Amino acid sequence: MGGTGVNLAKPVRALVALALPPRCPGCGDVVDADHRFCAACFGGLTLIAPPWCAACNLPFDHDRGPDAWCAACLAEPPAHGGVRAAVAYGPVARSLALRLKYGRRTGHAVTAARMMARLMPGDAALMVPVPLHRWRLWSRGFNQAALIARALSRLTGVPVEAELLRRVRATPVLRNLNGRGRRKAVAGAFALAPDARARLDGRHIVLIDDVHTSGATSDACVRLLRRAGAARVTILCWARVIDSDGAD
After folding, report:
1. Interatomic CA distance for residues 151 and 143, integer angstroms
2. What is the DSSP letter of 190?
3. Which regions of 44-142 does DSSP assign to beta strands (E)?
4. Which element (helix H / strand E) includes 192?
5. Sign of the CA dihedral 234, 239, 244, 245?
6. N or C: which end of the chain has fewer CB within 10 A?
7. 59 cis-preceded (ω within 30 degrees of 0)
């Protein structure tokens, strides 16, 4: 019986692949394997890697040395330990994020995680996804940051605590607000689980999100985690807005 099952498995997989072929996460064209971009979409991605600001990981156009800081960080040192993003925000990165968040293409969380895994800090002790408010979670059915975090955990072995950080107050859509408005909108929106301090104290925490825009949401989370005892909080995301165009 077991041999028959094995013999049937390959034809069944072939039929599934024929009916539901792998598609590019950027444009939806058929590709040769899951979680792969077509040549055009992959060419449209800008990978983020050094040289970058030693404080916030903003990419530099030329190497200024491993300890160089950008002007913004020199003027106001960030509370976080860096913002590591797989790619710069652009049309293809945006397409994946929107297909994941609003198109319910939950498999795209794995695609994002596979490209983010190279940026996981070597001493990361715990991953915490940026939470959704319960009403938004109920309407969407999932938290895209938590899906990415779980996929990253399978790839890297770093554990996830999806309930450690909570969004206790619903916030408006931030894309139409300026920096000050975004910070005001998320003030007091987050809280920690009652036993969070014991799980955070002295540890390097990685905050997971899909897109890093102004930093208002992640900064609110970082400050809360740091006040509860986290030694360092690095932000790790799929895409980061580099220019001033903003994100959806």
Report:
1. 13
2. E
3. 83-88, 126-129
4. strand 190-192
5. negative
6. N
7. no
Alpha carbons 190 and 67: distance in angstroms, whole number: 32
Helix (H, G, I), strand (E, B) or coil at 115: helix
Q: How far apart are CA 7 and CA 246, in angstroms?
A: 52
Query: DSSP characters for 195-246?
Result: THHHHHTT-EEEEEEEEESSSHHHHHHHHHHHHTT-SEEEEEEEEE--SSS-
Rounded to whole angstroms, how far apart are CA atoms 181 and 122?
35
CA contacts within 13 A on the Cβ side of 161: 20
The predicted-structure confidence for 84-95, as pLDDT tens digits, reads as follows 999 999 999 999
Asked if residue 206 lies in contact with residue 158, where contact means CB atoms within 8 angstroms, the answer is: yes
CA 45 – CA 91 distance, rounded (Å): 8
Q: Which residues lie closer than 8 Å to 146 by C-beta, 6 or more apart?
A: 129, 131, 160, 162, 208
What is the pTM for the complete model shown?
Answer: 0.88
φ and ψ at 84, to 5 degrees? Answer: -100, 120
Instruction: Please give the pLDDT value at position 170.
Output: 78
- Judged against a pLDDT cut of 80, whether residue 179 lies above it is answered with no
- Write the DSSP symbol of residue 150: H
Four-point Cα dihedral 177, 182, 184, 185, nearest 10 = 90
Which residue matches tokens 């930093």?
215
